[in-house]
Amino acid sequence: MTNHALNQLSATRVASIKQPGRYADGGGLFLVVDKTRRSWIFRYTWRGSRTDLGLGSARDVSLGGAREKAAHFRALVAAGKNPKTARDREAEGRMTFGEFADAYVETMSTGWKNSKHIAQWKMTLTQYAKHLRPLYLDEIDTDDVLAVLKPKWATVPETADRLRGRIENVLDAARAKRLRSGENPARWRGHLDQLLPRRRHAGRGHHAALPFGEIGSFIKDLRERKAVAARALEFLILTASRTTEVLEADWKEIDWKRGLWIVPAVRMKAGREHRVPLSPPALALLMALPAASRKGRIFKRGDEDLPLTNMAMPMLLRRMGIEDTVHGFRSTFRDWAAEGSCPPAWCNWGLRWSP
Length: 355
What we know:
By secondary structure, the protein is α+β, with helices and mostly antiparallel strands. It is 41% helix and 11% strand. It has helices at residues 11-16, 63-78, 83-91, 97-108, 115-128, 142-153, 157-176, 215-222, 228-239, 243-247, 280-288, 312-319, 328-339, 344-347; strands at residues 21-26, 29-33, 38-46, 49-57, 254-255, 260-263, 274-277. The chain has a 4-stranded antiparallel β-sheet, with helices on one face. It has a 3-stranded antiparallel β-sheet with strand order 5-6-7, with no helix packed on it. The two termini are 42 Å apart.
């Protein structure tokens, strides 16, 4: 593709050109003038061959419109896609799942709560649904959806169910735009519920949990918040601990030499002393807290030795637009441990995980 600077032509110049020839605007966009017509072309190189792609008559397509089309095709080339193939497919009314899913998220995100929710959708539809992305929308069937869901259905059911729902939404939207027809292969009731085991819910002990694949971006967002509740929540996540254990945590329980947090039996649900290995991020979090406050409770309200309220962390999640529960992060940890083939007995001890 040409390396000429962009936007070399002007609308006035385009209108005044009469002499036949090829006039470069830059970035592969040319105005072609001959005796009978004036038209736009986009020139690019694909697999060693130079190709000219028509963008329409200059009478119907303005300079600005031609530049938009050229920019779109340049992006396709940069992404390793042939603009001619993409244009032909669009003319046929066919799109791949990946192309449509990306467009769907971009359209729907204007009505979603925050950037975190948008990032979750993008991650699951890009990483977890990567098997579907190159497939045409009208070719996706139940076997394709099952190939994506089955590897995660038994080990990380919360994540798998969210993924299924998002695939269902995308395919429903594709049907509404007449890009596919027939039943939705990702539908649960009366379809996948006959092919996949029903997720087991733990009754009153079940808590909405963030998929572990999204924990990294969540922690990044959390660290931008300066509130004590944010530090307490991050410590809870890094140690896979319960809310009460973190809110009552005392500096004297930290064994700096061995990198342990030793929770006395009196504060444990099981009535036994609990030793939690502190990962480097957990230790760094504690070290970053003001040295003058290293007496009494670790996470306290103001200058008084009073613990944060039980609602401090849930309210923080609510302000962040996160629907998952604080206790659900223990489920997130267990999903992560299961995905990594962690021995079940170890998962109860808050292993060194570093989201």
